[in-house]
Amino acid sequence: MKQLLPHPILTLMLLGLWLLLVNSVSPGQILLGAVLAWSIPLYTARFWTAQIKVRRPFLLLRLAGTILYDILVANVAVAILIVGPRERIRPAFIRMPLRLQGNVGVSLLANIITLTPGTLSASLSPDRSELIIHALQGDDPDAIIDDIRKRYEQPLLDALEQLELKRGVLGADAEPPHGAESAEPSKPQ
Amino acid sequence: MSILNILMEILIAVLILIGAGFTFLGSVGLVRLRDFYERLHTPTKATTLGVGSLLIASAVFFSWQEPGWSFHEVLVAVFLFITAPVSAHLMAKAALHLREHGETSLPTETTLAKHDGEAAISLGAEQARQNGLSARAQGEGAIPEARR
């Protein structure tokens, strides 16, 4: 089972991707998509050094809803900042200690922070314990960190579990967390 | 023309106007904001809400006008939402690096040769890491030499 279907989530996503790409749900396309979605993870299995386990999928869905809502609200807020007087923009760099571990979780969090306007993830420490955030309105760094913690980091912590797979040559550099390079978040999903 | 048609057209027009408005505000931000990091904020705004509502308008229009549904646009949004933050992150990171270290000269021939050899031979994780660290330490030592 594990050998035949190494990454079930990836398979589902690929099938969805294919159906969206051809814009049709005819039986033929579903069959073709299923074959592709089954064979591509098998063929590329050696690239994936870690596997993600979603413990609570509904929490992730709710997180997606929160993000969409925040994008709407924050976009309007930043638009007002841009049009308004310049003195009201007080940018600041904020250091945020991360509780999240694992490259998928951290890269998701960094992406979310950048997607919501007003905050931008600028740099990640090599040991992935700290994220530097640039905020357009950084008067109250603690409130911003608190907000990110509560709204995004906690659901990610609860919902995701990363299992390290040691396999082949690539498995060898499947990070001890103090990897040699400053770890740029990759996007395995 | 029925009432439904008029309503659909109004909906699509409003979505397109919202999208155009936010994309425009993103460009205004590029002009009005003062430094590099502030300016990085505005493209994320244009891609999220601006392109987002344009894509919704496109999906609604083609699902309505042509037979069958049109959900291509979801893919555009997904790829945009994945790639835009990554490029913003890399640019911010590069800017921070330049600010901290200034413009460094290119690596010397010897450090380049070392990294080549390292990639060719696949070592165990611990060994590779140590080699990487020592190569980097030597590389840092080599920079002042190259400057002379």
From TrEMBL, chain A:
Its main location: membrane. It is found in: Cell membrane. One of its GO terms (cellular component) is plasma membrane. The chain crosses the membrane at residues 63-83. GO terms for molecular function: monoatomic cation transmembrane transporter activity. It comes from the Bacteria. Keywords: Cell membrane, Membrane, Transmembrane, Transmembrane helix. It is a multi-pass membrane protein. Belongs to the CPA3 antiporters (TC 2.A.63) subunit E family. This is Na+/H+ antiporter subunit E. It comes from Halochromatium glycolicum.
